[in-house]
Design a protein that fits this description.
heterodimer, A: alpha+beta, Immunoglobulin-like, 25 strands, 43% helix, B: alpha/beta, eight-stranded mixed beta sheet, 27% helix, globular
Chain lengths: 733, 223
Amino acid sequence: MRILFLLLTWLALALPAAASVPASEAALRDALAAGAAPVAKASTAPGPQRTERIEAELVPMSAWAVPGSTAVVAIRQQIKPGWHTYWRNQGDSGGPTTLTWSLPAGVAPGDILWPLPERQRLQSLMNYGYSGAVFLPVPIEIPADAAPGRSLPLRVTAHFYVCSDEMCVPEDLDLALDLPVREGAAPLDPRFGQAIQDIVAAAPRPAGIEARVALTDGRLVLTAAGGPLAGAAPRWAYFHPFEGGVIDHAAAQSGERGPQGLTLTVAAGRGLTSNGLKGPISGVLSTDLGAWEITAEPGAALTGVTGDGAIGDGEGAQTAAAATALPDFIKAAVFALLGGLILNLMPCVFPILAMKAASLSRAAHNPAEARRDGLAFLAGVLATFLVLAGALLALRAGGQALGWGFQLQSPGVVAALALLMLAVALNLSGVFHIGAGLQGAGHGPLSRLPGVAGAFFTGVLAVVVAAPCTAPFMAFALGAALFMPWPMALAVFLMLGLGLALPYVLISLNPRLLARLPKPGPWMETLRNLLAFPMYGAALWLAWVYGRQTADALALLFGAGLMLALALWLYGRAQAASGKARTAAIGALLALIAALGLGVLAGKAPAASSEGVAPSSRLSSQPWSEQAVQSALAEGRPVLVNFTADWCVTCKVNESTALSSARTAQALEQANALYLVGDWTRRDDAITAELQRHGRSGVPLYLVYAPGRSEPRILPQLLTEGVVIDALKDAID
Amino acid sequence: MFRLLTAASASLLLLAACQQQPAASPERTESAAAPETTEAPGPGELAPAFTLVDAEGQQRSLADFRGKTVVLEWTNEGCPFVKKHYTGAMQTLQREATADGAVWLTIISSAPGTQGFVEGEEAQAWKAKHKAAFTHLLLDPTGEVGKRYDAKTTPDMRIIDPQGRLIYVGGIDDRPTNKVEDLNGANNFVHAALADAKAGRPVQTAYGTPYGCAIKYPETVEG
């Protein structure tokens, strides 16, 4: 009960992070709903003007304007949800917001200082625009002879294309502002001054980045270096050109980064492919580190812009970040809970549960101890999820391309886990024993502590080994979670932990269920010995994964395992016999040192080269690359992509069932489809970026690309033959 | 003792897990090239064949008009950009083109239930309602033909020469607004291309950036 209360407190803390809608916006929306009847063309009175879809107002950044200076005013928009207005290059459809000023003599308007637009995908089109609350700042030159004490009447007709997915409505709104003129530095206007100042500070500007562009084979290759890009490590980059026809707005942009900058490649627009590259290309380069205006001159690529890894265009991050509303958070949390529950059934977790089941039967007749045990287990699970999730979020924030399951991408971790599994299995087999509490005797304070600590660390172990088994529901929850603000992301991971620990916790908290368990007896020892075998199985599986991850170091791991078994047997003997205890204990210590030494060597073994990894599916496949997908599509062939990893049991199960059958092979042949496998067993930034692009943070991910369609179809994580065959049939229709 | 060992191992595991991997190995040079969109044909290429049913229920194929200049115009009567042209300019252009012997096919690729979609009597009344002068109004409710030509907006124009090659692809003019006054002084690419074709010259401007409202294709299947 207390734990549930703590969890609810967690959620309560996360909710304010989700409620990103400022209070003033809510008030505005109320005013809109309750307000005056919508008018197509408003009168030129100062203040907000409204239509059914948009409210606009001309607002100042500062409380007054100083003669001879540049004042900043802004077109404030509040757009109805589902509608948007556009950037200076609207993309494929719609049109930019334009302003027609009517100003007193000597007052000169500048160009709109456009904030970075959102990418708004509409089926196969891409637009660049804004939604919700928008400010378009405009600098206004105030003449030196403006008389202090008077007001300057600023009038503008703002022409918006307000579009939804279904239609575009042009709206003309006449806005007015009487800007006071006074001497002395002006403070920020209390209503929107701070917001406008933030937008002005963040708006993309030239930043001394040098850029070149070349047109080859219908592709535009943009290289940018220097300025804020030098020495930076962006995770994604996207180029928004100022003119239409330069790029195919809807196409993905992919690139590479280097020590001095980055390279972006994108399908060129028809304007360039028809007329050729005649002059410089200007636009906004946006990355996760910032957005800047660049002008790319036609010419050879710059140096220092490749070699540090592939980067994506951040579309997955964009769309996922936009969807961090409360309903999505709740959905992710519920899915995480369900995922955790189902994770209990997955082959990775089952051995741990077997161990837990053994200890529960031991404490079954003592409800207080069982309750402590259950809560300690829950605490262990939750704490580990917190730490792992925190580490993952921190590393990703630091620029590492990691996904869920990242701990198993390192051979050292896999080796250590395999040895640990072996030790636990040997304990269950009775090779050695631990403490007095295990014998069923002793309810004193001394035996309580090891029990609690043991339960806690069993929880820790359960999480560490569970990571590679991606249960259904988990992919969505984890993919969404990694893009949420971190309190919400951590809350989702905690829900996952709760789901994982829930069955055990419920039983341990419920005295009636506990009483149903049989009384302790000799059967317990038999059960423990039996449960040792799933653990041996887990150790063997991890050893297999280790073997695939390293070039030739499996022998080292086997040696370490052997030494460990010997050490533990000697230790067990030392416990049993009192006389020869010392010899046995020394022998155990020596063997243990040998085991640890071999283990460390095994952990440091060089990793296998990526080409050596053979896919475990029986279908003929090729390694995944973006190029391979596109050239197959260009030939008119559909593509089936399988992102997998050796340590991901769900992936392996799918590969040996749905992706290995004769019927699937036949369907691939009939569709003339290309089967590509992306192996994520060890870290691969290009695959991480591609996973991110589809809103996922781990494997498995199954994509079916159809020629003629811009976006691939994502298949469910638990594959069946029928799903794959249907998707392939659909791709050739 | 064992539990302590488990504790120590678990802590070591977590520390190891936090260890960073070395930077991506240099032999992995499969940095992705940009994805190529499956290209619909551009100026100079053969126009894809199609068969659509017109407003009167007759089947019309592109092949029927081989030997004549064919103009394809995507339209949507609710789109403000189309409305600008239909205040008179588009109708005049249609009249002049057909008088010169060209075949003008107006195509509606809006999906059922979306803006611009018409069928039955409404489709038959469309020409008179807008005082249009096209040769046929073709209905493309599945959006197949629109996608075949990579038509994105309304209006979007294609001109096909008598040999079946595209000689103009893109927007109707160089003033991407919905304001009627912007028709004056705009460079109408379709008008210019037709004039070039009539005079036997190669078309000077074979592409103009299309603008307008997005064509309301049916939702694509998304997994």
